């Protein structure tokens, strides 16, 4: 527990400091996290040192690049990068005579898009007007959801939510997580933490509370399939980057796609 607390405090201070500063240090941090997150997924599949894995790694980083950095590569776009990666991976299946199959290239493409866009939209949130407050609000909601689900589940949880994927999660805990997210939303409205209507804040709170937990379950499913306890060991007592940011990688793209922020 002591190690977990120390790691959490150090990581939080560094993340908060760089996020508040913004600019290129924050962009570099996001790209670093993207690379680490992609490496963690590739290692689950034991593809971290493969040529195919390298393509996926580069694709994830390209997808996560800030828009203003990407403009320096014009006319090359992120769509071009995805198409090129698909074609290269198909070529590999031929050259390697099916030693690399569709299972491998599907995993690499899916993982690159999941990790790349997850971190990209976290970055996009930061650069919005009032983006610092909005970014922290969503993160506070995610942390409140995780904490609420854990403590409510521990206290009164009886009915299993999805035992095949995560045997310790309960329906009561999931409802508690959503409630805690809503509490954070209401507090942020009353304290004018963000310039947003109450209805929009509550809608965001509900989406974070529900889909943040789905993002956590999705990451748990990954780990179940590949029989690993944690995605990595970078954060002692916490696991890997994906273990800490699985909900965020699900929630931030969804909120942007639904145009609830931006």
UniProtKB/TrEMBL annotation:
<keyword id="KW-0472">Membrane</keyword>
<keyword id="KW-0444">Lipid biosynthesis</keyword>
<keyword id="KW-1133">Transmembrane helix</keyword>
<comment type="pathway">
    <text>Lipid metabolism.</text>
</comment>
<keyword id="KW-0812">Transmembrane</keyword>
<dbReference type="GO" id="GO:0005886">
    <property type="term" value="C:plasma membrane"/>
</dbReference>
<keyword id="KW-0443">Lipid metabolism</keyword>
<keyword id="KW-0808">Transferase</keyword>
<dbReference type="Pfam" id="PF01148">
    <property type="entry name" value="CTP_transf_1"/>
</dbReference>
<dbReference type="GO" id="GO:0016024">
    <property type="term" value="P:CDP-diacylglycerol biosynthetic process"/>
</dbReference>
<comment type="similarity">
    <text>Belongs to the CDS family.</text>
</comment>
<keyword id="KW-0548">Nucleotidyltransferase</keyword>
<keyword id="KW-1003">Cell membrane</keyword>
<protein>
    <recommendedName>
        <fullName>Phosphatidate cytidylyltransferase</fullName>
        <ecNumber>2.7.7.41</ecNumber>
    </recommendedName>
</protein>
<comment type="pathway">
    <text>Phospholipid metabolism; CDP-diacylglycerol biosynthesis; CDP-diacylglycerol from sn-glycerol 3-phosphate: step 3/3.</text>
</comment>
<keyword id="KW-0594">Phospholipid biosynthesis</keyword>
<dbReference type="GO" id="GO:0004605">
    <property type="term" value="F:phosphatidate cytidylyltransferase activity"/>
</dbReference>
<keyword id="KW-1208">Phospholipid metabolism</keyword>
